[in-house]
Amino acid sequence: MMRVMEKRPPGILNLHPAFTSVLVDLDPRRLTQEDVEVLIEERLARLEGLPPSEPRIIEIPVKYGGESGPDLIEVARITGLTPARVVERHAAAEYRVYFLGFSPGFPYLGGMPQELAVPRLATPRKRVPRGSVAIGGEQTGIYPLDSPGGWRIIGRTDVTLFDAAADPPALLRSGDSVRFVPQGEV
Amino acid sequence: MNSLLIVEPGFQTTVQDLGRFGYAHLGVSASGAADALALRAANLLVGNSENAPALEMTLTGVTVRFERAAVIALTGSDFGAGSPLWKAVDVSAGALVRCGAALSGARGYLAVRGGIDAAMVLGSASVHLASGVGGRALKAGDVLRVGDGAVRRARSGALSSSLYEGPLRVTAGPQAAWFGQELFDSVYQVGEASNRMGIRLVGTAIPSPPGRMVTEGVALGAIQIPPDGQPIILFVEHQTTGGYPKPANVISADLCRVGQLRPRDTVRFEPVTLAKARELRRAQEEWIYSILSME
Fold first, then answer.
1. Pick from A14, A23, A165: CB nearest B22
2. B103/A contact by beta carbon, under 8 A
3. CB contact, 8 Å: B84 with chain A?
């Protein structure tokens, strides 16, 4: 979808891709919904037959547990696994970036092993440090910036996921594969 | 080059233009002026392009001192500055412009001829407070440069506006079919926790529909219903995607009204068709560009 909208046409303000949809934010002074449908179909037709983007594998070094992952022990307790096993399972999986959304640079990752699913915190933290790697329900994610959050934090990475001054500003893009690489002792 | 000194920052004063577009697919919502209509008017009155960076004040205003003479316009809510609103006025070198508490509404804009020469981040000077993209709220002692970006003469006439009176008109949201008339039958109060991310409403709870949502993109002005049934109007710093159902969306012509809501204000919603929403927006655009035919 993002390739459809390369060189954003005048009147298209934003695209919000998600799991099964793309929201197109248009300027009603310039375009109608019908205009946008025509525009997207024209561009899609032009892309037909072109090879898909090169798949990328991004490795994210993570310090699991301890101060970096204050909820690791609780996640182990809820899942009935040892902390070492939680880390092993979390780091063994390959994750797919479905899309970035919610907040700047935040990746929606698919592929977390079902056995690591844990409920979100009853009371979200007011501040989750940037780089925190966390589990919320059946999803895992990385907080790109300091923010409030209700997911359980199992580790932290020093990798910068979002930097407004960088080009591109976000490290990840939809379609990437992500692997977490444990750093040091758990 | 002229500059302005922030003597008193007020409750929450930020530099805003019309927003940062083209980065929602990276999770960055547009931010920009909460009352874009008032920002545009202020800029057009002083002869700037309508997107020039200006100051947005919230509930209590700034006190600023211009190093040299300047032409400014104050629009939006009345912060008791003692000079006419919706009109370009001269400020002499070294004079203080004092804005106090908002007498009604929530937000005021101070535009200066030439614009504020603020750092552009991803194509916009708008501060996104929640993420820190574009900077932070202003503090006492901050000095901002005044740019030289005026594009036409300042206007001497004053604008009058009745666009802020009335209910919030809405079109159907993506999950409108999941809901009944509850949203339109109730009067809501603006909650204390409201901010640039969202206006949290308090009132009759709207029952959560049984449908199961998949996280999807959310638009500015979308009204979402979380499990507690208290509606939230997603505002300029909204998250780019969300998983709560949305029965309705505030029309673009009424987003200026959302920007002026303050805690404990009452809110009513009125459904309109998309065609009506477009017509209202067209009328609003005519009103704003009437500035350019003023003396």
1. A14
2. no
3. no
Size of interface A-B (CB pairs under 8 A): 107
Q: Give the DSSP H or E segment for B230.
A: none
Whether residues A14 and B122 touch (CB distance < 8 A) is answered with: no
- Residue B125 and residue B32: Cα distance in Å, rounded? 8
Chain A partners of B30 at a C-beta cutoff of 8 Å? 13-14
pTM of the predicted protein model = 0.94
Q: How far apart are CA B72 and CA B263, in angstroms?
A: 29
Is the CB of A147 less than 8 angstroms away from the CB of B130?
A: yes
User: How many Å is the maximal CA-CA distance in chain B?
Assistant: 63
Q: Using a CB-CB distance cutoff of 8 angstroms, which residues of chain B are in contact with residue A17? A: 25, 217
Strands of the sheet with B63-66, listed across from one edge: B96-98, B63-66, B3-8, B143-145
Considering all CA atoms of chain A, what is the largest pairwise distance in Å, rounded to the nearest integer? 58
B287 vs B110, B111, B158, B225, B281, CA distance in Å? 20, 19, 13, 33, 10
The alpha-carbon gap from B67 to the nearest alpha carbon of chain A, in Å, equals 31
Distance CA A21, CA B73 (A): 42
ipTM: 0.91
Q: Which of A7, A15, A25 is the mutation pick for testing B, counting most B CBs within 10 A?
A: A25
Q: Which two tokens stand for residue B48?
A: 């700037």
Q: For residue B40, what are its two tokens?
A: 């545009």
pLDDT of the residue at B218: 96
| Residue A80 pLDDT | 97
Give the mean model confidence (pLDDT) for residues B278-291.
95
Cross-chain residue pair A100–B27, CB shorter than 8 Å: yes
Best mutation target, B23, B25, B212, to test chain A (most A CBs within 10 A): B25
β-strand partners of B76: B108
pLDDT of residue B179: 94
Instruction: Tell the residue number behind the tokens 């479905």, with chain if given.
Output: A98
CA distance A128 to A136: 13
pLDDT digits (tens, 9 = 90+) for B193-246: 999 999 999 999 998 888 778 899 999 999 999 989 999 999 999 999 998 999
Asked if the C-beta of B5 comes within 8 angstroms of chain A's C-beta atoms, the answer is no
Q: How far apart are CA A94 and CA A2, in angstroms?
A: 23
Q: B94-110, pLDDT tens digit by residue?
A: 999 999 999 989 999 99
- The letter for the amino acid at A129 is P
Is B244 in a helix, a strand, or coil?
Answer: coil
Token readout for B153 is: 């003469």
- Choose from A2, A12, A14, A21 for mutation: most chain B CBs within 10 A: A14
Contact predicate B173/B182, CB 8 Å = no
